[in-house]
């Protein structure tokens, strides 16, 4: 593969194209300033305005959320796994029917593998624009988003209605639900009663990995962060490894499926049979299947990188208490 061909599979942080109308809470005060990014895969946006950078199926989706301070993403759930790592800023994640069952604060580099079956939201509690990177299980990203009932109700009060066809309709623009299309059904009390309310103490040990801990663990060899035998044991359809300067190697390897490289710190030189490229924090690179490649830091200083590859497992861990 030539450098020009591989460049089409690299999304530079500075080239990311945001969508400010991606979800039902785009008009809701407190959530109306967030930006959504679909980097790899179809994503879960409810808006036709969402730009997809790389549409090639990988067995998972890569996205991102950018938000100014005090901006939040409303309570929602997916049918498949959702994992986040913090690229920039300081973030509070919260979960439960009303978002008060538990919470955790994540710093830069920390990763949170959120089990399906619970509503979750997040907000930027830092002092500057923040960015979190997301991994969603499956090529269809779980078939969309399930919103907490109050999110749907709040959105309607501010002019946005989600149709049962999965599309948003803005009443402020005189948009109406098409004939034969009703509004998205709100979860019943019976359905909501089945959803667990795990506490912070329940969630933290098995679902959050801290950046500094991973840096220490990956000083000699890469550490598996998410996987059947990972720090966060799960089979969500993908595995996530964490690599540092000490555990990087120039020896090339291949995968039978596409893999993704996402630098967290430092600049990384990726070599493959046919060329090389340098990645910076926030960049995302999709390496084609069966292409021999390696990744090593290209400059001195702190260096860390997340590596994601599909495994074809089911949706992932549903919260079981």
Automatic annotation (TrEMBL):
<feature type="domain" description="Cupin type-2">
    <location>
        <begin position="69"/>
        <end position="132"/>
    </location>
</feature>
<dbReference type="InterPro" id="IPR013096">
    <property type="entry name" value="Cupin_2"/>
</dbReference>
<protein>
    <recommendedName>
        <fullName>Cupin type-2 domain-containing protein</fullName>
    </recommendedName>
</protein>
<dbReference type="InterPro" id="IPR011051">
    <property type="entry name" value="RmlC_Cupin_sf"/>
</dbReference>
<dbReference type="Pfam" id="PF07883">
    <property type="entry name" value="Cupin_2"/>
</dbReference>
<dbReference type="InterPro" id="IPR014710">
    <property type="entry name" value="RmlC-like_jellyroll"/>
</dbReference>
